[in-house]
Design brief:
Keywords: Molybdenum, Oxidoreductase. One of its GO terms (molecular function) is oxidoreductase activity. This is Xanthine dehydrogenase family protein molybdopterin-binding subunit. The protein is of the alpha+beta class and 722 residues long. The chain contains 17 helices and 30 strands. Among the domains are: 233 residues, Aldehyde oxidase/xanthine dehydrogenase, molybdopterin binding domain (Aldehyde Oxidoreductase, domain 4), CATH 3.30.365.10; 135 residues, Aldehyde oxidase/xanthine dehydrogenase, molybdopterin binding domain (Aldehyde Oxidoreductase, domain 4), CATH 3.30.365.10. Helix 13 packs parallel to helix 14. The chain starts with 6 loop residues before the first helix and ends in a 15-residue tail after the last helix. The structure holds dioxothiomolybdenum(VI) ion (MOS).
Length: 722
């Protein structure tokens, strides 16, 4: 139960985010966005903008900054602004104005006149379905489409025909925006050795490499810093538009440049979660054993087809032990803002379809939905030989059912005054992954230690994890460990994405600390050192030998050293050939729908999770609560609305609904804690994203239980319940 080390700084406004940095001679940039969804920029008249007081530069595809295509090994190519005259969506960055003050830059940006040759835009997901395209293979390399049939079964249709009970339904989920508290922003400072860029990100090292590529510099010439990140969720995995523009403008002008997206601009000049359409077909025998499971998905994608939401491959590929499986992913290219990874990409919307369909099957079978899920729990992903390393999903459901009072559930809900009350449940799963990470651990002569890695803490609690795992590995109190991150000058940390950071960096810390302790013992017993020639061991922050002990600081002082450091690296390896890995959870929701107004309110929520070892229960609980609340948001609030002309009708916090405190009851989070050392030595499986999985289905299933109305799209609105 360790409070987050950065908590007080953030709460007191003393955490310096990228945008909080100011430097002498700093100029301010403002991004100009397109006002059509499809076409070509014919001309840009920047005369008025340029003659505005204080303006230092107006950049456009006609007068571009020095930016070139760039990519990261992990995420591939990233779109770089101002390189082309084609407009592929409303709100695309088409210009950048830099001035002495923010107000001057913004005023001048309003004076930039853009002439377009407009073409018809395709912005409707429903219209686009007819011309959908095949999507690439699944993220684990699974073919698309993928069919796994029981030997002897000729076709999926045969399996379906042999299923006594069949449920078929189509589900839809809305596109969502990465509305992080900290808008995408950057401050770029040119220097002797290159460029320093302060910008919110999920991996400082990766961002330095990506920026260097865009600027034609060596990665070592770009220094990316951000110890504090105000939310990322996948939306700060790539270098942002303001970071590219501020960096290039700083180099062009030889001055520090600050740039940030305005809140409305965040809705289009970043990247969103795609909208999905998902058709589920389930076939089962009378006892509820799944004979056939088909999941066909359509995801919106921008015209460059850069990202699709892997709903079929993210959920149905692994969740249930069905005898026959058929999944496919298609993409619908639209003139809409870019799409990208967002918290549980694939699983969050995919679980709405799968877990609603499972609920529908339970209704058709007149079976308890938990019993149906337990009956079909997978020991290994279908078609794979590798069993789950550790799976305690049944226990999650058992504990959850008991704590939630599931036994009191009535098949058609109950009433409480004017409220129709229902409960719903759903499975949550998210793969347990790791990425390569390097950490440096340093012992100092003052008996403190430093744990440093280039990774980022986007608000997930990684900073505190570094100190806790560092302290445990060095056998000292966490208060003596200074954690450092968010700096590309530190050893390359993993990516804070894919719920991997704790497992990736934690394992690297353990390796670094073990090596460091060996080195310390070698130093302590070297000729002339306090334990010369003695057998030594290490415990409690002390070197022991010959019946006495010294702290590591005392040893270092005795040999005249101020510090001793060692690096440790970890990466996924042999374990991948032995097991499949996932975190698991059971989600529960109680929903009240008003008899007359039909407003729906979540009145109770419970999630029970099997995420391996929990390193910091307080932060872990917060992560999961946040995810579960996001599930409620997806279920009842959130969704981008495309209006005529491809403009988002609700690109601000007035129209883009998010749950507020009044929408969220007490959230109960419970862990079943089984450290998974088959996955990594730390035993943590990752829990950043799984909270957002399944909860939307649990809410929709509760709405059905309360009202008898099955809503197959998100968000669920009052008009759906009339
Ligand atoms: Mo992850 S989609 O980077 O939270």
């Amino acid at each position: 139960m360790t409070p987050r080390l950065d908590g007080p700084l953030k709460a007191a406004g003393r955490a310096d985010y990228a945008l909080d940095r100011t430097f002498p001679g700093m100029a301010y940039g403002y991004v100009v966005l397109s006002t059509i969804a499809c076409g070509e920029i014919e001309a840009m008249d920047v005369t008025a903008a340029k003659s505005t007081p204080g303006v230092l530069g107006v950049y456009s595809p006609f007068d571009p900054l020095d930016l070139r295509p760039t990519s990261t090994p992990m995420l591939g190519e990233t779109w770089v602004p101002l390189r082309d005259k084609e407009v592929a969506y409303y709100g695309q960055p088409v210009g950048f104005v830099v001035a002495e003050t923010f107000e001057q830059a913004r005023d001048a940006a309003m004076l930039v006149e853009v002439s377009y040759r407009e073409r018809p835009a395709r912005t409707s997901m429903e219209d686009g379905l007819a011309s959908a395209e095949q999507a690439p293979p699944g993220r684990d390399g699974s073919p698309n489409p993928l069919e796994i049939l029981t030997p002897g079964v000729e076709s999926f249709e045969d399996a379906l025909a042999a299923s006594p009970v069949v449920v078929e339904a189509t589900y839809r989920t809305a596109a969502q925006n990465h509305a992080a508290m900290e808008p995408h922003s950057a401050v770029a400072v040119p220097g002797e050795a290159g460029l320093t860029v302060y910008t919110g990100n999920q991996a400082s090292t990766m961002m330095a490499g990506e920026l260097a590529g865009a600027l034609g510099l060596e990665p070592s010439e770009v220094h990316v810093l951000n110890p504090f990140v105000g939310g990322a969720f996948g939306g700060k995995g790539r270098t942002s538009v303001p970071a590219f523009l501020a960096a290039a403008a700083a180099r062009a002008l030889g001055r520090p440049v600050k740039a940030a997206l305005a809140r409305e601009q965040v809705f289009t000049a970043t990247a969103n979660r795609p909208a999905t359409v998902q058709k589920m077909t389930l076939g089962a025998d009378e006892r509820g054993t799944l004979i056939a499971l088909r999941h066909d998905s359509w995801s919106s994608t921008p015209m460059d087809r850069s990202f699709i939401e892997p709903t079929s491959h993210g959920t149905s590929r692994e969740w249930y032990a069905t005898q026959n499986l058929s999944i496919s992913q298609k993409m619908v290219p639209l003139n809409i803002p870019p799409t990208t990874f967002m918290r549980a990409p694939g699983e969050a919307p995919g679980s709405f379809a799968l877990e609603s369909a499972i609920d529908e099957l339970a209704v058709a079978l007149r079976m308890d939905p938990i019993e149906l899920r337990t009956r079909n729990s997978s020991a290994a992903p279908p078609g794979k030989d590798l069993q789950w390393s550790s799976k305690h999903l049944d226990e999650c459901f058992r504990i959850g059912a008991e704590r939630f009072g599931w036994a009191r559930r009535a098949p058609r809900g109950h009433t409480d005054g004017d409220w129709l009350v229902g409960v719903g449940t759903a499975t949550a799963m998210f793969p347990a992954l790791r990425f390569p990470a390097t950490v440096e651990v340093t012992l100092r002569a003052d008996d403190t230690a430093v744990v440093g890695t280039g990774g980022a803490d986007p608000g997930t609690g990684l900073l505190t994890v570094l100190s806790l795992v560092g302290a445990e590995s060095l056998d000292i109190e966490p208060e003596r460990v200074t954690p450092l991150l968010g700096d590309s000058a530190l050893p390359p940390g993993g990516l804070s994405g894919g719920s991997t950071a704790t497992a990736s960096t934690g394992t690297a810390i353990m390796i670094a600390a073990a090596g460091l302790i060996d080195e310390l013992l070698a130093v302590a017993s070297a000729p002339g050192a306090p334990f010369e020639g003695q057998e030594t061991s290490y415990a409690d922050g002390r070197v022991l030998g010959g019946g006495r002990s010294m702290t590591f600081g005392e040893v270092l002082r005795a040999v005249g050293r101020s510090s001793l450091a060692a690096k440790g690296s970890s990466a996924p390896g042999e374990e991948l050939t032995k097991h499949s890995f996932s975190s698991f959870g059971a989600q529960f929701a109680e929903v009240r729908v008003h008899r007359l107004t039909r407003e729906a309110r979540v009145s109770r929520m419970l999630g029970v999770f099997d995420a391996g070892r929990i390193i910091n229960e307080k932060a872990a609980r917060s992560q999961l609560m946040g995810g579960m609340i996001w599930g409620v948001s997806a279920a009842l609030h959130e969704g981008l609305e495309v209006a005529a002309g491809g403009r988002f009708a609700n690109a601000d916090f007035a129209g883009y609904l998010l749950p507020v405190h009044a929408d969220i009851p007490d959230v109960e989070v419970h862990f079943v804690e089984y450290p998974d050392t088959l996955h990594n030595d730390l035993g943590a499986k990752g829990l950043g994203e799984i909270g957002a999985v399944g909860m939307a289905a649990a809410v929709a299933n509760a709405v059905y239980n309360a009202t008898g109305i099955r809503v197959r799209h998100l968000p669920i609105r009052i008009e759906d319940l009339l």
